[in-house]
Design a protein that fits this description.
Blueprint (H helix, E strand, L loop, with lengths): L3 H10 L6 E5 L12 E2 L9 E2 L3 E4 L13 E9 L13 E5 L11 E4 L11 E4 L9 E2 L10 E3 L7 H9 L4 E5 L3 E7 L3 E2 L10 E2 L2 H12 L2 E8 L3 H14 L2 E5 L10 H7 L3 E5 L3 E2 L5 E4 L4 E5 L3 H19 L8 E5 L10 E11 L2 E6 L16 E5 L11 E6 L7
Parallel strand pairs: 5-6, 12-15, 12-16, 13-14, 16-20, 18-22, 21-23
Antiparallel strand pairs: 1-11, 2-10, 3-9, 4-6, 4-7, 5-8, 17-19, 19-20, 21-25, 22-23, 22-24, 24-25
This protein binds adenosine monophosphate and magnesium ion.
């Protein structure tokens, strides 16, 4: 058994980065940017009006009020997409709509509400003194051409897609999706939808893995529930090792007589880097590497498998895609939390904000076979090894489940 942090360092030292691919902007949601994106044009691209109104020379409107309007001559219209070619001179103005280019000679916009209104007439009355730059969106005030728009490693979502569209990008270079093979082992496992016979249970773990894989942005290319026998393990694994960036198993990696997963990994040339980590649940965690594949063997108890995925597999997949993993927070316990003398202790929990502080407590069910402890949880809490339990008021690590929110 090796310490948790030592095992983390070993995994880190075997990480490799996935290649890139180009995808259409519409297909980029949930992907990780593989290149930095810069502003291809200044934003705004040209001085334009923030209001529907009149483009004027501010100096011409001096002293204008409702009682003492200034009368200006309308010489043209500038609308969004159809800039006016004319240049305004003293005493002149141009009707100028929101988003329309500011005509030559103008240095302010008067809102139409502060005038006698739009018309097809030759003149307009201005009711308000305009100041230079008023209601003008200046070229480059948001970003200059070449400025950094989005940094490499960012998760692409609505903000990024919208901003990229603003700058005319129709495609983005993103990290490839990790191709993963997931399998569970156990003669007792039956797929949901079938009837259970004596001693059998339903396979839950592969459903957890598949859901997590989708959330993190991986592509499951192989998935199966296997019997505790070397032949079927060999068959599945030899193909998985040849085709996947990562193989993730659940079960069959402990001390049981029929726990063959580790044996078959080794038979197929997988290099073992560790087996058994100082953590609870999930001590018999296996980590190895093949030619171009990382292998995580997680123990079968559903909570061990789930927490093992979130603490080991998830950050590794993110890392392979070039995404910076989110920070683990620190929260204050409202109730006691167990500790193990040499193992890191994990439990599903809930974290929320109280009086501006992050507080948390663990789920009441603590058994690693009790998957319903994950229901309603928004985080995984973990205590460092130690001899005494943590009490209410003590600090603890809070790993917020990335798809959950803290209330
Ligand atoms: P193992 O790691 O194979 O010793 O399994 C530990 C416990 O987890 C046993 O009670 C198994 O029945 C259970 N288990 C293993 N795989 C799964 C699975 N895919 N879904 C639900 N429970 C499982
Ligand atoms: Mg088993």
């Amino acid at each position: 058994m090796i310490p948790f942090n030592e095992a983390k360092n070993i995994v880190e030292s075997h990480l490799f980065q996935l290649g890139n691919e180009t995808v259409g902007l519409n297909k980029s949601s949930g992907r990780i940017l593989a290149e930095e994106v810069t502003a291809s044009i200044p934003s705004p691209r040209f001085d334009n009006s923030a209001m529907d109104g009149y483009a004027v020379r501010a100096v011409d409107t001096k002293g204008a009020s409702k009682k003492n309007p200034v009368t200006l001559k309308i010489i043209s219209i500038s609308s969004a997409g159809s800039p006016a070619a004319d240049e305004i001179g003293p005493g002149e103005c141009i009707q100028c709509m929101t988003g329309a280019a500011i005509p030559q000679g103008a240095d302010a916009i008067v809102m139409v509400e502060d005038t006698s209104g739009f018309s097809d007439g030759k003149i307009v009355q201005i009711f308000l003194e305009a100041h230079e730059s008023k209601h003008i969106r200046k070229k480059g005030e948001e970003l200059s051409e070449g400025d950094l728009l989005i940094s490499k490693g960012t998760l692409v979502a609505a903000s990024e897609i919208g901003s990229c569209a603003t700058f005319g990008y129709e495609k983005l270079t993103v990290s490839q999706k990790p191709k993963i093979a997931i399998f569970g082992t156990g003669n007792e496992l039956v797929e949901p939808g079938n009837e259970l016979k004596s001693g059998q249970i339903y396979n839950s773990n592969l459903y957890i893995f598949a859901a997590l894989a989708e959330k993190v942005g991986a592509e499951v290319i192989m998935r199966d529930v296997l019997k505790d026998e070397k032949d079927s393990l060999r068959q599945f694994l030899s193909r998985a090792l040849a085709t996947s960036h990562m193989v993730i198993s659940s079960g069959g990696v402990s001390m049981g007589r029929y726990d063959y997963v580790r044996d078959v990994f080794m038979e197929l040339g997988v290099q073992e880097h560790f087996w058994k980590v100082a953590q609870k649940p999930g001590k018999p965690l296996f980590f190895g590497t093949g030619q171009d594949t990382l292998i995580f063997g997680l123990p079968g108890n559903p909570v061990s498998s789930y927490i093992g995925f979130m603490e080991w597999v998830w950050p590794t997949l993110e890392n392979m895609m070039g995404k910076k993993s989110s920070k683990i927070l620190s929260g204050t316990l409202t109730e006691s939390f167990p500790r193990e003398s040499v193992k890191k202790r994990f439990l599903f929990g809930n974290a929320w904000i109280e009086n501006g502080e992050l507080v948390c407590r663990s789920a009441s069910k603590v058994g690693s076979h009790m998957l319903t402890s994950a229901l309603g949880a928004n985080c995984i809490l973990s205590s460092e090894p130690g001899d005494e339990i943590l009490n209410a008021g003590d600090k603890i690590l809070v790993n917020v489940l990335p798809w959950k929110t803290i209330f």
